[in-house]
Hints:
By secondary structure, this protein is of the alpha+beta class. The protein has three domains: 2-242, Beta Barrel (Thrombin, subunit H); 253-350, PDZ domain (Pdz3 Domain); 370-520, N-terminal domain of MutM-like DNA repair proteins. Helix content is 14%, strand content 32%. It is built from nine helices and 28 strands. The chain is flat, with a radius of gyration of 26 Å. The two termini are 28 Å apart.
Amino acid sequence: MRMKNLELRIENSKLHLPICNFKFLIFICVICVGNICRAGGLEGMEKSVVMIRGAGQEFDYVTPWKPKAMAQGVGSGFIIEGNGILTNAHNVSNNKYIELQKEGVAKRYLARVAFIGHDCDLALLAVEDKSFFDDTKSLELAELPGVNTAVETYGFPMGGRRISVTKGIVSRIQVDTYSHTGADSHLVIQTDAAINPGNSGGPVIQDGKVVGVAFQGLRQADNIGYMIPTTVIRHFLADINDGKYDGFGSLGVMLYPGLHNPAYKDYLKVPADQQGIVVIETIMHSSVEPILKRGDVLTQIDQYAIDNDGRVDIYGLKLDMSEVVETKQIGQTVELAYYRDGKPMKATATVALNRPVLEFARQYDIEPEYVCFAGLVFVPATRNYLETWGAEWIKDVPFYLRYLFHNSMQLNEDRARKEYVVLSEIMPDEINAYAGGFKSQVVESINGTTIEGLADVWKAFDRPPEGYYTIAFTGMDRPLILDAKEAHAQQAKILTKYDIPQQTRLPSTNSTGSPQDGSGQREVQQ
């Protein structure tokens, strides 16, 4: 019954904009080792594994009204119960068009994204033509494979027309960063795998069942590839059971393995025989902010004892305590035991998204918002924006942006702040001459009003055009000054000159000459 409901939700869910395997910059998609296909290894898999072709278009985060060039790519996916196609999110992110092809069948079938989880790099596709599933076979999920056991990876590496099968050995199971967002960490299974584009999204099989989804490799080493384990897959499928994807939650706390230092343990008044992990910060507005404080020592989460490295025994493995939280859906709770000032305490914490103001994760499928006024382009400070500095962005971005990215949680004391805003570009005009020195700076206030989000920029400019606009930037001792009346008078001309869309999605318009054009808005991503 549950899978029938899933099929219904796939058919009725909203169409998302998708990319395929052309996103190779950090992750390159996985294929397991071996150059020789086992005799009979493909038996039956041609009924389960499909090729995914996609055409996508990324956003420009400096001048967001300018779309980037279209790109095409190929990935893999496989059929699961309920007539869904499971694949990687990075195969279908920012896509405009998706089609599927079965081995030995010339026809291509239109597909759409039913559900997508960028934080776990998984997506579920729906097929418009239900005849696609004629003569197909769904694959079952298994439990975690054992270390040093053999697995087989299926897919279409390098876009080949025939399904490829190669072998590898499970070498490690651990929590690691998923390259798709560059920030989210979940359980991964490592294999001695060669790396080839096109295998992403393909099933990793052991004893006829799926033990993982191939998804990324390690550039700096030979024969190291990774798969998404079924613990993560099951969480994703359970999450979408209510018709929407909420994501993987957290406790919203930063931890430090300080109890390895006996002096620090004594300082925190923790018993000598007690292990645990030290709280050094909670994220503002996080679900544990009212519960935990700096210096608390977490010793247990649910029934799992926490050691001095912040690890617990789960699934027969020693893993980060975050893995206990990963077993929960958003809104569920965990029981915490901890020491404060030498006293044992207990509390119930709710698992929530708990994201920072300056999002560490790369974002997809979200049209970037912006404000363009008097030729000044304002955008939110995001990782996507920072990555416009190139492959070495973490070194090449201006120091103050790099410092903000790494320390925004500690630096931000404004509880009303929604995001940081940056002057990303200047469209040259007489009204903004000599403003070049303010480019890439973080906006602090306009006419003395603190800027807590991009909407505040519109509000600051949305007033009768008289006097001056005084734009202050964080860490700068001089403001950018605009003649208000002249800025409004030149607005339409500047937008026309630079082909900036004349549409308004942010507040608000009126008859006083306040800004009416040159804004875009992204939908909120949960």
